[in-house]
Structures are given as structure tokens and as C-alpha cells.
Specification:
The complex is a heterodimer.
Chain A (H helix, E strand, L loop, with lengths): L10 H11 L2 E12 L2 E10 L2 E7 L1 H8 L8 E3 L1 H7 L8
Parallel strand pairs in A: 1-4
Antiparallel strand pairs in A: 1-2, 2-3
Helix pairs in contact in A: 1-2
Chain B lengths: L1 E9 L15 E6 L4 E6 L2 H12 L8 H11 L3 E11 L2 E10 L2 E7 L1 H10 L6 E3 L1 H7 L1 E2 L11
Parallel strand pairs in B: 4-7
Antiparallel strand pairs in B: 1-2, 1-7, 2-3, 3-8, 4-5, 5-6
Helix pairs in contact in B: 1-3, 2-3
The chains are: A alpha+beta, B alpha+beta.
Chain lengths: 92, 151
């Protein structure tokens, strides 16, 4: 996120270079489930216009979008928002 | 290019901080034909994931290396091999080679990640090292004196 160069590619960089090399992209992240206080997510991979869902952790999904797919929107479901959504109080 | 196999894992004596949870932080790659070993250190996280993969346990949520394998499947590519290509300032450099439609694609990777991917794929992915890396870093275990740990 800070744009620092690390001497060796991280696993997330490796995954993103595979996606880019093969002409794919990340369309979106969906936080799709919440079980026992654990969030589950899916990566929406776009391969030649076809969308494929890949299970992952929300943290890995968001790290992946930081290596070149920053614009990918993040979605969640209404039921997760009802269970775990919070309201932030506005700062005075 | 020299074909290597994963011969064992050990605890790094020089970097015990990498080893707080007891996961071995050194991987011993041994050449398939010959006696030389290549000890390579991996990160704590990579080591933990390796332990999980070798035990056959299932984590409730996919690990980053599982995401790699899913992405690899999604594109219809397959993992060809891992190459330990260079060593600079004590750091190993590795390549992960994928094949897709009979074409080879080379990706820079941390050696630890490439080895975890090779293990997690359950596909007997070959691991190679260049002769120059072997010349610089390989050891023959028989040559170690008993007081190795003390020196």
C-alpha cells in the first residue's frame, strides 16, 4: 500500500503477475459469508470476459487488489451487514 | 541444471526468532544424483504453511498458496518446475515455471513460496538448482564436524 519495493516478490505479487501474464483481471471482491466470527470471501476473476469465483480470505483478496487491481470494488451481502455492520460515530 | 528433492527440514540455529512456533525454518534440498545438499531458509509463514500442507490438514479458509493453485487451474496452466536460479547477499532467487498451451512462462518467486506451491500442488513438481548456486552454497553433510553447532 505504501508502494515500497521489496527485494523479492510476495506471494500476492506472484499471483497477480500470473493473472496479468495470462490476460486476466480481478473484477471484484465479495465478502460472502460470516461463520463463527470468521469472514469468508471470493475473488471474482475475469478470464476473457468469463467470470470465475475463487475462495479466499478477505485479507488476501484485498492485498491482491493492491498489486494492480486497485479499482476492483468490494461487495458484501445484506445479511453480513446486518450481523456485523457497525455505525461509526461522526467526529466532532 | 541439477534436479533436487526435498530431503528434510530443520530448525535454523542462527535465526531462532524465525522459529518461535517450532516450525522448521530450513529446508534441505538434496541433489537427486549426488551427495550435495542445499540448505535454504524460508520465512516463518512459509514454514507454517509447509507444515500444514505436509500434515494434510485442511484449513477452514484457503491459504495464499491455495489461491495461487486455484488461479493456476482457472487459467488452465500447469506447474512445470521450480528453479533455484541465483543467490545474492545470502538470499536465494527462484523462478516458478508454468506451462500453458505448451508454452512456458517464467515467474519470479520467493524460493519458499515456490516450494510451498510445489508441495501443495501434489503433482511431484521437479525442483532444479543451477550449477553456479550449487557451487556457491551446496554442502556435503558428511563433511560437517561434530562441533558444527558450537562454532
Amino acid at each position: 500500500m505504501r508502494g515500497e519495493k521489496v527485494p523479492q516478490p510476495l506471494i500476492h505479487d506472484l499471483i497477480c503477475s500470473v493473472i496479468k501474464t495470462f490476460g486476466g483481471s480481478i473484477d471484484a471482491i465479495i465478502v460472502n459469508d460470516l461463520k463463527n466470527d470468521t469472514f469468508y470471501a471470493q475473488l471474482v476473476l475475469n478470464i476473457k470476459g468469463k467470470q470465475l469465483l475463487i475462495d479466499c480470505k478477505p485479507s488476501d483478496a484485498s492485498t491482491l487488489t493492491l498489486s494492480g487491481f486497485e479499482k476492483a470494488p468490494i461487495y458484501t451481502t445484506e445479511s453480513i451487514m446486518e450481523k456485523a455492520g457497525i455505525m461509526m460515530e461522526e467526529k466532532q | 541444471m541439477i534436479e533436487m528433492m526435498i530431503e528434510g527440514r530443520g530448525v535454523g540455529m542462527t535465526k531462532p526468532e524465525l522459529n518461535l512456533d517450532g516450525s522448521p525454518s530450513i529446508i534441505f534440498l538434496k541433489e537427486k544424483i549426488g551427495k550435495r545438499y542445499l540448505p535454504v531458509s524460508v520465512s516463518r509463514k512459509q514454514s507454517n504453511i509447509m507444515s500444514i500442507k505436509l500434515s494434510g490438514k485442511q484449513e477452514p479458509r484457503p491459504l495464499p498458496h491455495d489461491i495461487f493453485l486455484s488461479v493456476n487451474d482457472a487459467f488452465g496452466s500447469s506447474i512445470d518446475s521450480v528453479v533455484v536460479s541465483d543467490i545474492k547477499n545470502g538470499m536465494f532467487y527462484a523462478k516458478l515455471i508454468l506451462t500453458k498451451n505448451d508454452k512456458k512462462y517464467t515467474f519470479d518467486s520467493q524460493l519458499g513460496d515456490a516450494i510451498v506451491i510445489a508441495i501443495a500442488s501434489h503433482k511431484q513438481v521437479p525442483i532444479y538448482a543451477t550449477e553456479s548456486v550449487m557451487k556457491k552454497e551446496a554442502i556435503v553433510l558428511n563433511d560437517y564436524p561434530n562441533n558444527w553447532a558450537e562454532s
